[in-house]
Specification:
- It is a single chain.
- The chain contains 14 helices and 10 strands.
- The protein is of the alpha+beta class.
- Among the domains are: 63 residues, Taq DNA Polymerase, Chain T, domain 4 (Up-down Bundle), CATH 1.20.1060.10; 140 residues, Orthogonal Bundle (DNA polymerase, domain 1).
- Strands 8-9-5-10 form a 4-stranded antiparallel sheet, covered by helices on one side. Strands 1-2 form a two-stranded antiparallel sheet. A two-stranded antiparallel ribbon has the order 3-4.
- Helix 8 packs across helix 9, helix 8 crosses helix 11 and helix 10 crosses helix 11.
- The radius of gyration is 23 Å and the shape is globular.
- The two termini are 34 Å apart.
């Protein structure tokens, strides 16, 4: 099962499934290939292989590995946070990495049930809602996006409605998914080729969608272009709070290197500002908790989410304190919003 060669022989020799791509040593059996084969619905085997790989990874990376890292004195897991590893300015987590506990699949999410609150306490999770898109609306000053956030609209549904010129209540799930991919893809400097691959549509269709998006949200286009120009001129990208990220390849003669630097120039002010915002919120919340002599603790930062271990009698106080600390940390043209959940284990916070 773990031999790409034997899996390749099974899929393409024995089962005679179509070859999607090859490597130097034979047939490729990577996730992309298995997903493509599964989508063609020619055999149940690719889906079973994907499930086996997922279970195998969960077993080796989490189920077996995490208990071995429990501290013998506190009987808890303690991660190490690194301040200067991620170039975006975000904290990174190692030994063990608690920022990559799975969330994308239901099977992976079940791992979170293993992270439990001590007896008599409760876990509180507070997650910034679409912080990067809110920052894009703020920086670009695009009125359509700003209004959508102010009204509390679903921004992906709103995007689909604007680009496809279809009423909000007529947008399908698939149309919303496409709009979501475009919303996030543009912030990462994604090309029409990248979008076409992600959505499994033709390059022409992807290019058309991006063109229509920029016609409708023209201020977003001029803002993203201005970020590239700024980095070309200065050699760095800068966040809302003035933190710089220097881009050595922004003047590179190598087109691939330059394109990568341009993608970083577009993404850094947005992702970097999101990183600054949550760190500032953490400092404020910590100060306020000390000021009020609360016994609850801030446990984890996972990208745009903070997790607290809360005394049950302090739950309502903590909810108000955390919400205020996270939502008022910076004054933007759109409101910052957090989604909250509480429970006996990490899984139940969503």
């Amino acid at each position: 099962m773990n031999s790409p060669k034997q899996v390749g022989d099974l899929l393409f020799e024995k089962l005679q499934l179509p070859v999607i791509k090859k490597t130097k040593t034979g047939y490729s059996t990577d996730a992309e290939v298995l997903e493509e084969l599964d989508s063609r619905d020619l055999s149940p085997v690719p889906a079973l292989l994907m499930e086996h790989r997922e279970l195998n990874k969960l077993q080796s990376t989490y189920v077996k590995a995490l208990p071995l890292q429990i501290n013998t004195q506190s009987h808890r897991l303690h991660t190490h946070y690194n301040q200067h590893v991620a170039a975006t300015g975000r904290l990174s987590s190692t030994n063990p990495n608690l920022q990559n506990i799975p969330i994308r699949t239901e099977m992976g999410r079940l791992i979170r049930k293993g992270f439990v609150a001590p007896k008599g306490k409760i876990l509180l999770g507070s997650d910034y809602s679409q912080v990067e898109l809110r920052l894009l609306a703020h920086f670009s000053e695009d009125q359509t996006m700003i209004d959508a956030f102010k009204r509390g609209e679903d921004i992906h549904r709103q995007t689909a409605s604007e680009v496809l010129d279809i009423p909000l209540d007529k947008i399908t799930k698939d149309e919303r998914s496409k709009a979501k991919a475009v919303n996030f893809g543009l912030m990462y400097g994604q090309s029409s080729f990248g979008l076409a691959q992600q959505l499994r549509i033709s390059r022409t269709e992807a290019k058309e969608y991006i063109t229509r998006y920029f016609q409708r949200f023209h201020k977003v286009k001029s803002y993203l272009d201005s970020l590239k120009e700024f980095s070309e001129r200065t050699g760095y990208a800068v966040t809302y709070h003035g933190r710089k990220r220097f881009l050595a390849d922004i003047h590179s003669q190598n087109r691939t290197m330059k394109a990568m630097a341009e993608r970083v120039a577009i993404n850094s002010p947005i992702q970097g500002t999101a990183a600054d915002i949550i760190k500032l919120a953490m400092v404020r919340i910590d100060q306020e908790m000390k000021k009020q002599n609360l016994r609850s603790k801030m446990l984890l930062q996972v990208h745009d989410e903070l997790i607290f271990e809360v005394e049950q009698e302090e739950l309502e106080v903590m909810k108000n304190l955390v919400r205020a600390g996270m939502e008022s940390v910076v004054d933007l043209r759109v409101p910052l919003k957090v989604d909250m959940g509480s429970g006996d284990n990490w899984y139940d916070l969503k």
